[in-house]
Design a protein that fits this description.
single chain, Serine Threonine Protein Phosphatase 5, Tetratricopeptide repeat, 14 helices
Length: about 270
């Protein structure tokens, strides 16, 4: 009898390890792809952003930067600030789209106008300050967002989130639906249809991050780094970036590389 129990325990442990490994690789996302796709096709801005992220990270689908960019664009046009920022970065790098500094600046600045902290910081870098200075010195070089076919149609406003949608997201989030938890984090972080609330954003991102959602872990890295909704803590920031990077999050990997380069190693005493 004890032998049988031991075998059952070993089998359960093996299944648990297999499941956790599968989840870390994003393979358990496959079953949600049809539902997310259907919602995205119907115009749900948060589903469009989620689907774009899945294609970008290869979660539940084959990695496809071009398809990711297509869905990020749809969400960005509806005013989704994180989609605007990521789309700008993709245009800057030529990742899944044509490399185009004009469009990159357009989307990054649109996100910055909505209060996106990383977009604002990025626009203060030498590259974009020089870019803007060069444009202002050109007699016909000013960018008119209205002339772009892919310009957002919200005049920089955040997408409206109805009370019914909030109630639905909250209900699902309280039932440990990781996507709903992440969406609530985004909504409260950017104030998309509700008052901006870093405390609530942190709470929901943390719940999703503890369920191994790489995007939520990535966002927690920034919140700890900036002290948004939580006490500023560089060690915690790096920890969450590392957890996201371990799941293949490209943005987290880039941040870790930058943080590592900026770390000054003290000289040894002679």
């Amino acid at each position: 009898m004890e032998y049988i129990i031991a075998i059952i325990v070993l089998v359960l442990i093996a299944v648990g390890i297999w499941y956790l490994s599968r989840r870390a690789r994003g393979e358990d996302s496959e079953h949600i792809v049809p539902g997310v796709t259907k919602a995205a096709q119907s115009g749900d801005v948060f589903a469009q952003y989620k689907l774009a992220s899945m294609y970008y990270e290869g979660k539940g689908v084959q990695p496809d930067s071009a398809e990711a960019a297509r869905w990020y664009l749809k969400a960005a046009r509806q005013g989704h600030v994180e989609a605007q920022f990521i789309l700008g970065i993709m245009h800057e790098r030529g990742d899944g789209v044509d490399r185009d500094n004009d469009r990159a600046y357009q989307w990054i600045s649109t996100a910055a106008q909505q209060g996106h902290p990383r977009a604002r910081t990025l626009l203060e870098s030498d590259k974009w300050l020089l870019y803007l200075d060069a444009k202002t010195q050109e007699s016909q070089g000013n960018i008119d967002p209205g002339d772009r076919a892919d310009a957002p149609d919200t005049d920089g406003r955040s997408p409206e989130v109805t009370r019914e949608q909030m109630e639905e997201y909250t209900r699902k989030a309280e039932e440990d639906d990781v996507d709903a938890q992440y969406n609530l984090g985004v909504i409260y972080y950017h104030g998309e249809g509700v008052p901006r609330d870093f405390d609530k954003a942190y709470t929901w991102f943390r719940k999703a991050a503890e369920q191994d959602d790489a995007d939520a872990q990535y966002n927690l890295g920034f919140m700890y780094g900036r002290g948004e909704g939580v006490q500023k803590d560089r060690a915690q920031s790096l920890q969450w970036f590392k957890r996201a990077a371990e799941q293949g999050h490209n943005g987290a990997r880039a941040i870790i590389e930058k943080m590592t380069k900026n770390t000054v190693v003290p000289a040894r005493k002679q």
